[in-house]
Amino acid sequence: AKEPVQLATASSKLINTNTGLLGSALHNVVFCSQTRNANQNSTNIPAFIVINEDGDIIFNGGDLEYLNGCLGGGMALNADETKFAIIDGSAKIQVYDVNWTDNVPSFTHYCSISTNDQEICQMAFDYSGNLVVGGRYLGVFAIPTESNVCETPARKALTVTSGTATVAIEKVEADENAP
Hints:
By secondary structure, the chain is an all-beta fold. The chain has no helices and 13 strands. The strands form 4 sheets. The chain has a 4-stranded antiparallel sheet, with no helix packed on it. Strand 12 and strand 13 form a beta hairpin.
């Protein structure tokens, strides 16, 4: 088998090696962040950029509303790539709605989350849309939604086998009055 090879230069916009990379599974782009202190996010040296498969910058986060830097480089996209989170230069996580047009993102501020961690270097959304972050501390944040409900898909039936017995569980409805 031939190994895949593709190298794209992200440009001189990324000036340090304290960076984060986040690939988009649905839109064939890469988000690139870099550590920027508070009030040091600019279009010349942005906290993050988005590049396409040719290495072209298709979004520059240098003048994105509420983003004043990026301490630690942590960022995340949710599963359907409609929410983006990034740590700013003041230990706040900025969450944005993402709209895509021809694989080019645009961002609208959704909410800010205050943290005590100025060096969040890893983030991920879980299946339910909670934001899990890691740096000096581990944090899990519930991102508010219109319904605040998430159904986790599961099989209709589940068989649990132990050393002495086998138990079959069929679909069970939740009791809303249960404590």
